[in-house]
Structures are given as C-alpha cells and as structure tokens.
C-alpha cells in the first residue's frame, strides 16, 4: 500500500456501498480471487473471526454445547427428506456431479446448512431418553449460490457456526432456542458493540422447515437492517421426516424436539457498517486483534524506542494485545495506516513528551487526543479501552434509536419512508397479505416482532383491522 | 452403549484393521453417515482435533505465521496452471458443475489442496521485497476422491492445516521448509508421544509440483508406516507458472521462492495405532480432552462424593481437565467405559479408602494401580501425568526401534520381509528403477532418506552399484 493509496476511500456519506467495499479492501480484511462470488479472508480479517470464534465457543461450551464436524456434502436424497427445507435451499446450492474421472451415481450438494446431516446422525446415535439432550455445534464453511455478492455480507461461500440440538420436550427445545438467541444478542452488544432488537420472524420470513425463527436485528449506519444471527425452533417436524425417535422412560417410542441456530462472518460486515468511518475501520476493543498501537516519534531517539517497548511489554503482561509501529514511514502516515485498521487506541511518544514524562492517547472512535502521565499509562489504557467499548455501544444505540420511527397509519409510514432512513415500527394484523403489500409497495420487509413488545391495541397499517403485533419494518441487506 | 457392547472390540493382535475401526466407533470418535467415504467427527474426536489445533496454532503463531481463509473452490483453469500439480491431483478431485439451477460456465473443483489459490493471491498482493516474506496458514477441510476409505486414515473429506509461505531467497524458503518439518516432528513426539523419523522423500514419492518433500514418518503398532506430516520446498516453480514476482531492492523484477506444509486429522489415526490396546483408546496426557477421571465407589456415601468433587475442583484450579463419573452404572462398567475413552489417569475413591485417607490411581497406559495419600493427591496427579506422557513415548520408541531392520543385500531384505514386520533400512543407489523394483517385488515403498543419515559406503540392495543413501522402506497406510 503506497502512502497515497492508503488515504483514498470513498466517503461514507457520498456512497455507502462503495465506502464499505473500499474499506474491506484497504483495511486488508479481504481480497478477491478468480473464484467468482467467494472471498479470501486475509490475516487481519481472519484474526477478527478467530476472536469471534473464541468468544462464541466460550459461551457455547459454558452452556454445555460440544463441537462436532459433519461432512461437507449432502446426498440429494437426504436433502429432499424435509419438504419445506429442500424447497428453501435447492435453488441456491452447488452440485457435485463428478468424483475424480467418474460421474457420481447420485448428485451431492455442497452443504448450504447441515440440518439434514444432523438429523440422520441424531437418529443414528440416540436410542433412549438417557441420550438426550444432545447439544452440538459445528464451525465450518457453507455454500449458497448467490447472484450478487459483497464481502462478508453475501458471498457464495461463508464461514459460520451452526448449532443443532435435540431434546425430550418441546418446552426444553423452545427454551434452548431463546437461550441461544440471547447468547447472540449479548455477544453482539457486549463484544461487537452492536445494539440489536431481539424478536421473532413472521411466518413469511422464517427459516425453511422451522416452526419459529428468532432473530437479532441490527441497524447499520445508513439505516438498513442486517439480520445478525438466527435461532430456530423446529418442533418435531424434522424428527418426523427423519424418523428421529427415542425410547422414553415410559417405554414409549417418541419423536425428539429440535433447534438450530447460526451466526456467520456477516457479523464482521455488521460491525464495519455500525462503527467505521471515512478514515477506515473502527474496532471495538473487545474484538480488536490489536487493541493498542504505540507510535514512537523521532525514532532515532533510543529512549523513545526503549520506553515504547517497555510500555508494550507491560501491556502484554496485562493480557492487552499491542503493537509498536516503528516502521520507516512518517508519523502521519503511520497514524493514517493504523486508523485504517481500526486499532482502538494509539499511543504517541516523542522526545519532547519524554522530557515532560507524558505521552499522548488518541482514541480511534472519537479521534480525541489526551495527554497522559507516563507513570499511570497502564491503568489509563485499561480504563480507556473500557470507555471506548462502552461509548461505541452507546453511540451506536443512540443513532439506532433515533432512526426508529413509529407509524400508526399507512400515510405516516409512507411519509417516513420518503423522508427518512431506518426502521418503521408499526402495528400489523398478522396476515401475510398485508406484509406482502408493505414489501411490494414500499420495498421494506418485516424485520421482527420484538420479544419485549406489548400486545398492541392499534390497527394494522395496511388493512385497518385490529393489530396483533407491533412489527419492525426495514430495508434489508 | 449397553454394558455388553462396551467390551466388544476385536483384539488388536487378531485383526488389526478391525480392531482399529471398532475402536474408532466404540470410543465415539467418529460415526458413519449416508455420505459415502466421509466421516462424522463426534464430540470426543473433535475435542482431540481442537487440542491438536491449539497446540499447532501456538507453534505456528510463535514462529510468525498468520491464519487466512481461501475459497473452497478452484476453477479448472487455475488448477491447470502448474502441470505436475494438476496431473497429481486431477484424477482425485470432486467437481462442481452446477450452481443453483444453472450449469456453470467453468467447472470448479473442491479444493484438494490450495497451492493454486495461494499462488494467485500472493501474485496479487506482493509488489515489493518489503512485502516478503508472507507466512500464511489455513485451517480447513479438503476433498480427495478416494476409492477405499477408513476413519481418519483415508477419507474423501478430511480436516487439515496447510501452510503456504513465500520468500525472497531459495535459502530462506529451504530453511522454512525444514523449520516446519521440525515443528511437526516436535509436536508429534512431545504431544502425541509418537516417535518419528524426519527425512526427505525420494523423487518418486514427493508432492506433485515440489522440488523437495520432507516427511515425518511414524511406525504403527503393526509395523506399517504412516506419513504424519509433510513439508515441501517448491523453488520458484509455481512462481514461474503463476507469475509471482516482486520488485527487489536492486529494482529487478524477481520470482519468489515458496513452501507449503500440512498436517491432517490422520495424526489422530496415527496416535490410536501407536498407543491403544484391546481395552480401547490410550491417550497421551498432553492431548487428552479429559486427563483425569474420578470414579467414586459407593456413591450413596456423601463423603465419597464430596471428596471426589473437591479433588476435581483442585485439579481444575491447576488447569488439569477432569471429570467425576458419578453415573448410575457399576464401578466395573465405569472403569471399562473410561478405559475405552483412553482417559490417562483414573482415580478411584471408596468409603474404605477414605477411612485410611487414601485413593487409588489407575494408569490407563500400563493398567497399573497405586495407592496414593489423599493429602498429596494433586502433586501426585501432576507427576503421574508427566510420567505417563514420557513412558508412552519411550515405550513406542523402543517398539519402533526394535522393528527397524537393517539389510545390506536383497536376500537379507527378502528374509526380513518374510519373517518380520516393520521398516527395512537399506542402502540404495538413488535410481528410481531400483526403488520401483523394490515396490513391485516386495510391496514396500521408500519412506524417506533420514535427515541425520550418514553418506553410506554400502551397495544398492537392488542393483549392487555404490549406494547414495540409506533409505527406510516399509508398507504404508
């Protein structure tokens, strides 16, 4: 990256889509290849994903889940076993037809999701109520043959985790579905600093084969919605299609109840579009691969370098990841480069600072600078990182809240859509026809029925009949 | 698993292959599915793989390597760019021909290995000598369309890591190749307790497209060789095929020098076939997901249970993974079940032990039992785990060494092969014809030319011409 290139990204307010793509490339998160529609995740992007994996794995394992690995391929006949499921996925899967030099007797699809494989496996290994529940998770890549693609947001191959669990009772499975929704919600809010609405998808928007789909919905800087994680309750639908039974205490053969839940590399896109700016990436400290960068100024000065490395050592002892950027480039260029990479806190140290026993803290999120005494630099870093994390969340939440608009009538909704971006929160009768009409007329879809929503007394904005729910509507990625 | 089933595995000395498969299934490492030739890695098997990943990741990162993720697919034209490479892999790849409902304009193979993708990427991102070296690694699954398959050893899909690096000089790349070979060798010996021979593959056995292939070769309990990791030096062969150039300090456009190296889930198979026995799995403490199992006997006794959990808590504080097995089953059944799972150390505690302030240690590797004072149980566990680890390695090494047979003539080799299993160490002239003759006549292949081998003064066992190397020959998995 030359000095000139590093500064050139499109402005976020001029062309949001171009800004996003520029940033993904310039911050060295991803690259393209000759594999159309797929992305290369570069070291910096992958380090973020590894941190996400570590955080989620910890939460999954603490709640009793175990990791497994299922085959990459699904035979066509297995995919076809659950009718709604195959109808949902068949149009967008990649098919393997040849192995080596021979044509296969049966086509294999590259997994778009692994419900069918888990179902077959559960049916195979579970005999008795003593074998239940099984709480499994898988980290892998999946493939969906999308027509238009964008880094992290929509890609023919993406990385994800998919949880799959089976239970004795519907109640227990429903509890699991909601528990994992909250694991996602808490992770997004606490770690990625993304405020989310936790809710239920409408019948129209739910997962192919699910009885209920729950979602955590985030709003991007430009007001567009991004579904950031979903959790599905399957009832015993798949169990019936796959003959997943067990012998219960009462000696009766019974069907299992099932859930699945997933989060993908897409949340990296969500994080970028929530926090970043025209200088590049802004990473929340809780997920940043490098939390602090120290930039020595006037590097010929041995003491400056020594003090820089001393601070770095002391931060590492505290478990804080840190880099000393003592490259040959000018301070200004190094500032810009580290800003592009979204490192939450920069510490600048020059000879004149040393004379006065201070250094300068520069926050990536607000771009504010502070003078800090060298004697208290370690505790001040700890405090500052926590302050940045909280403040990024609060800022995102304030903006998100200011972009949620309440409408009681179709006219109000129309006005909002024409003049503002963001979500519309409006009463709805619960009928799919009205939902479809909103989509066709206004280009927005129902995002979710919030979990904490009151039963409403309003009237459906489309048909005027008594409303069943208040629903968030919005444009979606 | 019923009480009866848990005991039934074929004896290792009666039918080694069946013993191996029985063990993989009964220890719940893997399961089959309707996806022919692929395996399901169950929680216990995957936990072992996660520990392997963690150990290797730490070693890779300490030596400056970064993780990335490349696409799952490779366009046919990209695979075709390096002639030897495509000839080596094309006969065994799976081909995607359709995406969604449409036929693809160009077939995509599911990656059998990712050299070609890394080459394209390196050519794309590296402009100057300042961008070198790049030290990358990828964790993923790869596909090779094998005809006969066995859990972990040979499977149409398997998990692995593939390292790919590029360097300014041939020397630096060669150094990297050997460095990573030793990372593998050390990992296998220190963590999996598998003694290995570090050596170079002959021209005939090297990787498709490599100038040199190094290998770590292990010998299984039955004397058969298992290649447990390989490291390749590519010279600038791929660089020329993919136009991977950079601008050097002297302002000249130059080709990069390249390496790749890989280790797979196969090493789990190697570990099983090195250490396990008729009671099931035997895991080295350094890789075991659960290092200690505590079996309270006479569980109605509250004190027995309390003391069991107290020991477990104290072990956890020390970072030692432990499980209390207080299930309803009989002690004998629980012993057998935990032996099948290969947990290195079992602690038995009963009411009569408590009266005398002792407990019983039972080693999984030797099946020996010791009485240990409850007051010193924690330090004794630490000591015992280290003792088990060392002793497993020593035992495997003694057996391996006793099964390496030196031959100076073809007659000697013939005699050894007819009467003994293991490796034959013999002088060879270096000509491929003689190597091929050994394979065709005796069904054994050259495993490697050892790194620490002396230049030999003997004569080739086939043609009688002056020998160039001493080579290990053996049957291979």
Detailed description of the structure:
Two copies of one chain form a homodimer. Chain A has 477 residues and is α+β, with helices and mostly antiparallel strands. The first copy, chain A, contains 14 helices and 23 strands. An eleven-stranded mixed sheet of chain A has the order 3-7-8-14-11-10-9-22-23-21-20, with helices on both faces. A five-stranded mixed sheet of chain A has the order 16-15-17-18-19, sandwiched between helices. In chain A, a hairpin with a 2-residue loop joins strand 5 and strand 6. Chains A and B meet through strand 2, helix 2, strand 3, strand 4 and strand 5 of A and strand 2, helix 2, strand 3, strand 4 and strand 5 of B. Strand 5 of chain A pairs antiparallel with strand 5 of chain B, so a sheet runs across the interface.
Short description:
The structure is a homodimer of 477-residue chains. With 477 residues, chain A is an alpha+beta fold.
Which keywords apply here?
five-stranded mixed sheet; alpha+beta; 27% strand; disordered N terminus; homodimer; 477 residues
Strand-helix topology:
The structure is a homodimer of 477-residue chains.
Chain A lengths: L15 H11 L3 E2 L8 E2 L1 H20 L3 E2 L5 E3 H4 L3 H7 L4 E6 L2 E9 L4 H11 L8 E10 L13 E11 L2 H21 L5 E5 L11 E8 L5 E11 L1 H5 L3 E3 L5 E3 L1 E8 L1 H10 L16 E5 L5 H16 L4 E3 L6 H10 L4 E5 L1 H5 L2 E6 L5 E5 L3 H26 L1 E3 L3 H10 L3 E6 L3 H11 L2 E6 L18 E6 L3
Parallel strand pairs in A: 3-7, 15-16, 15-17, 20-21
Antiparallel strand pairs in A: 1-2, 4-6, 5-6, 7-8, 8-14, 9-10, 9-22, 10-11, 11-14, 12-13, 17-18, 18-19, 21-23, 22-23
């Amino acid at each position: 990256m030359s000095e000139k290139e590093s500064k050139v990204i499109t402005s976020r307010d001029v062309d949001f889509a171009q800004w996003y793509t520029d940033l993904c490339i310039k911050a060295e998160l991803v690259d393209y290849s000759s594999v159309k529609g797929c992305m290369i995740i570069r070291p910096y992007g992958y380090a973020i994903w590894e941190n996400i994996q570590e955080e989620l794995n910890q939460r999954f394992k603490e709640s009793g889940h175990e990791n497994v690995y299922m085959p990459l391929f699904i035979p066509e006949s297995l995919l076809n076993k659950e009718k709604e499921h195959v109808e949902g996925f068949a149009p967008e899967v990649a098919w393997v037809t040849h192995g080596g030099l021979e044509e296969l007797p049966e086509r294999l699809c590259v997994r778009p999701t692994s419900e069918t494989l888990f179902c077959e496996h559960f049916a195979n290994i579970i005999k008795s109520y003593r074998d239940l529940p099984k709480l499994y998770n898988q980290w892998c890549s999946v493939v969906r043959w999308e027509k238009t693609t964008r880094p992290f947001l929509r890609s023919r191959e993406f990385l994800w985790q998919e949880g799959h669990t089976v239970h004795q009772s519907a109640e227990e499975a429903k509890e699991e579905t909601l528990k994992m929704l909250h694991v996602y919600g808490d992770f997004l809010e606490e770690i990625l600093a993304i405020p989310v609405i936790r809710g239920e998808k409408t019948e129209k928007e739910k997962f192919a084969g699910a009885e209920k789909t729950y979602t955590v919905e985030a709003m991007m800087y430009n007001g567009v919605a991004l579904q950031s994680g979903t959790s599905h309750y399957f009832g015993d639908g798949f169990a019936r299609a796959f003959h997943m039974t067990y012998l219960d205490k009462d000696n009766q053969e019974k069907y299992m109840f099932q859930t699945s839940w997933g989060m993908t590399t897409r949340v990296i896109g969500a994080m970028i579009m929530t926090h970043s700016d025209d200088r590049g990436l802004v990473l929340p400290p809780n997920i940043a691969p490098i939390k602090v960068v120290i930039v020595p100024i006037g590097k010929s000065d041995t003491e400056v370098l020594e003090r820089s490395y001393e601070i770095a050592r002391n931060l590492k002892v505290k478990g804080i990841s840190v880099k000393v950027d003592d490259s040959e480039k000018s301070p200004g260029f190094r500032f810009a480069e580290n800003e592009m990479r979204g490192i939450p806190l920069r510490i600048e140290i020059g000879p004149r600072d040393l004379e006065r026993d201070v250094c300068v803290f520069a926050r990536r999120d607000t771009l504010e600078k502070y003078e800090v005494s060298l004697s208290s630099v370690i505790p001040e870093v700890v405090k500052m990182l926590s302050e940045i994390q909280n403040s990024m969340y609060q800022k995102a939440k304030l903006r998100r809240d200011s972009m949620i608009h309440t409408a009681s009538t179709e006219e109000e909704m129309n006005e909002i859509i024409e003049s503002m971006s963001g979500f519309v929160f409006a009463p709805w009768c619960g009928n799919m026809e009205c939902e479809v009409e909103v989509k066709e007329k206004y280009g927005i879809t129902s995002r979710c029925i919030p979990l904490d929503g009151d039963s409403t007394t309003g009237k459906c904005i489309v048909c005027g009949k008594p409303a069943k729910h208040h629903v968030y509507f919005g444009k979606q990625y």
